[in-house]
Amino acid sequence: MKSIRWLLPALSLVLAACAGPQVTRVQPLLADADAPYGNVLVVSLFKEYDARRYLEAEIVKELRARGVAAVASTSLMDTRTPVTRETFVAMVESQGSDAVLLTQLINFQSKAEFHDVRPEATYNVWPTYYYNVWNVELTEYVSPPTLDLKHSIVLAAQVFSTKSLHPVWAIETDTVVNIKQNERGDTSIFTDEAKSIVGTMSRDGLLAP
After folding, report:
1. CATH number at residue 42
2. Of 195, 209, 166, 204, the residue nearest 28 (C-alpha)
3. Residue 179's beta-bridge partner residues?
4. Is the peptide bond before 36 cis (omega within 30 degrees of 0)?
5. Per-residue pLDDT reduced to its tens digit, 103-151
6. Rg of the chain (C-alpha set)
7. Euclidean distance between CA atoms 133 and 114, whole angstroms
8. Treating both helix axes as pointing N-terminal to C-terminal, what angle do 49-65 and 188-203 enclose, rounded to 10 degrees?
9. In degrees, to the nearest 5, what angle opens at C-alpha 69 toward C-alphas 200 and 44?
10. Domain count, the chain
11. What is the pTM for the complete model shown?
């Protein structure tokens, strides 16, 4: 399990420009898989509980919109619940899930750039007693430099059949996010990731109609 402590503070900032998740196929749906699935347990293995909760909630929303019964693991636990195989097996049994969708961070790279802000200025000009001589007062208003962040985020998504207990499908999503420090409030990366993952699952025949 990999830490994404960067994710919450980064996502408290607005996504000034996001290329959107690019899907790279890792493992196509196995020919002998018992798909399609109609009852999915959604699990995200991030260290930060809130990041797990946000992504799971968006994936569940996308699955339910396609008529699939889905539940987020974080809706069945709290921050004190151990993140172990036994915990998730108990969830599968209690929910009657026929598949588990697992997401986890596999790569993260970040680049920061500082940019100086062009100062604003005001001028006050008034004449003197001398011919063609003027008094000039210049006031500059300088803002602190801005910080632009560029993140490259790679997530892996796997679907496990609860009947065979083996992975039957997997993809990676690669997202590049440009964030400006002085703009705040957007966490749409979770929504974009969920749409990308669930949309690909639907196209690959993993979801019951």
Report:
1. 3.40.50.800
2. 204
3. 15, 149
4. yes
5. 998 887 766 666 666 667 676 777 777 767 777 776 766 666 665 666 6
6. 25
7. 41
8. 40
9. 60
10. 1
11. 0.72
